[in-house]
Amino acid sequence: IETKDDGATILAGNQKVLFARLSDAKFFWENDLRVAKAGMAEWIEGLKAVTFHNKLGSQFDRVERIAALACEIAPIVGADADEAAEAARVAKADLRSEMIYEFPELQGLMGRYYSEAAGLPAEVAAACEEHYSPLGPSDDVPSAPVSVAVSLAEKLDKLAGFWANNEKPTGSKDPFALRRAALGIIRLVLDNRLTLELLESSDKAFRLVEKSKVDLNIRHAKAKHVDQEFEVKIDPVAEEEILSGGTYSYWLEKREAADRSDLSALKNDLLAFFHDRLKVYLKDQGIRQDIIDACIAMPGSDDLNLLVKRAKALSETLATDDGENLIQGFKRANNILTQAEEKDGVEYSYGADAKFAKLPAEKGLFDALQAADSVIKPAMEAEDFTKAMTAMAGLRGAIDTFFTDVQVNDENEVLRRNRLNLLSSIRKTCLAVADLTRIEG
Q1: For residues 307 and 305, what is the distance between their CA atoms, to the nearest angstrom?
Q2: How far from 296 is each of 141, 179, 274, 400, CA to CA, in Å?
Q3: What is the rounded CA–CA span in Å between residue 171 and residue 438?
Q4: Tens of pLDDT along 247-306?
């Protein structure tokens, strides 16, 4: 529509609205700068009045948990522990600023500006903005060590908190964006090639959450000055000690043994959630679910970077003819061996002896396994799973020839046992990288 004044009225109206908004922003910015230059202590203290969750306390309580967790994670990601803790303690401070109250979409970015105004280190200021990232599958992933430490701690705390309260995602419902938090951790770990043991890190996160829940109940009980049933169960002796001004150390000692099994179940359940998110993430990269399952079954599956290296190596190997045929040879060896062990009631895993090899195909398989083992062992120690899988795929010819030329269940019991132990060597070698029994087809 062409206007009579060539849009001058529309332009003037928009300028009026924008001028008012920008004037407000300028006013908030100038007011906030006074608090920021004083160190943001007023905002940090004000976080005590901002509820994060009724069972997990305030934003201040959460910040304290994140700071403690970031301090633990810092050495793993190459960050300074003190800087990571400091960044965590100011990362949410801008939530109390006037600017964020009016323009909530600027949280994090304003935190960076205010931290710079407060004279904090550049790494700390950057973490205030970057600790929210990544927010989605296409969002940039922080790489600065302090930012990575705080971002991991923030997301781990959220997951541990809601897991401890049994408020997990169900179906399509995920009101607390826990799937996004898990994906964020996955991307932080993989993009930065971190060796982060999730079971150990989540253990710390769950214990901090438990401590925070106890503190919250203590505050509620003291504030009311009445006896009440604590949401976190505390025995009467510990409750009396706490309400009379003591500590909860007695309670922690009493609960430690009882909590160990509960904590283990929580950690394993959360790890399974990470694995489910990882399957979705890797599926988009063309890695089959059965391949990921085969790698999850191996020790150390809480190290996501190690897990993905295994999965990619296996996926690349299975894409070759040698790799696919190796799987078939392994399954044949495993089936024969399993049936024999069930029938005989023994385990054939004591190693075959080359001196009992009667046929050339047997001797050839012995030599091939020995040569492959000399490559696979150092490759596994170096976590070079591609090299290890390539060496395994090289066994394909010797295994095929063995099954073509050799009758495993020979009438001679010595030969039979030796050949079954040789199949056990195949199984042991092929299971070094992944649980190939889980591979479909």
Answers
A1: 5
A2: 25, 19, 11, 28
A3: 26
A4: 555 445 545 544 555 788 899 999 999 999 999 999 988 999 999 999 999 999 999 999
| Residue the block writes with tokens 């069930």 | 342
**Distance between CA atoms of 51 and 114, rounded to whole angstroms?**
22
Residue of 142, 135, 133, 88 whose CA lies nearest to 115: 88
Burial of 13 (0-12, 13-18, 19+ CB in 10 A): exposed
What b/e readout covers 346-368, taking b as 16+ CB neighbours within 10 angstroms? eebeeebeeebbeeebbebbbeb
Check residue 131 and report its DSSP letter: T
In sequence order, the β-bridge partners of residue 57 are 53
Two tokens, residue 337: 């061996």
Tell me, rounded to whole angstroms, the distance of Cα 219 from its chain centroid. Answer: 32
Helices (H) and strands (E) in the chain, counts: 19, 2
Name the 3-class secondary structure at 226. Answer: coil
CA torsion, ordered 230, 234, 235, 237, to nearest 10 deg: -100
DSSP state letter for 96? G
Query: Which token pair is 78?
Result: 């190459």
CB atoms under 10 Å from CB of 166, counted, come to 8
User: Which residues are bridge partners to 173 per DSSP?
Assistant: 170
Residue with tokens 């793993």: 76
User: Which residues 6+ apart lie within 8 Å of 133 measured at CB?
Assistant: 139, 140, 141, 142, 151, 184
pLDDT one-digit tens code per residue, 392-435: 999 999 999 999 999 999 999 999 999 999 999 999 999 999 99
Beta-carbon contacts of 342 under 8 Å, excluding residues fewer than 6 positions away, are none
Place of tokens 């306390």: 57
Coil/strand/helix, residue 51: strand
Whole-model pTM: value is 0.86
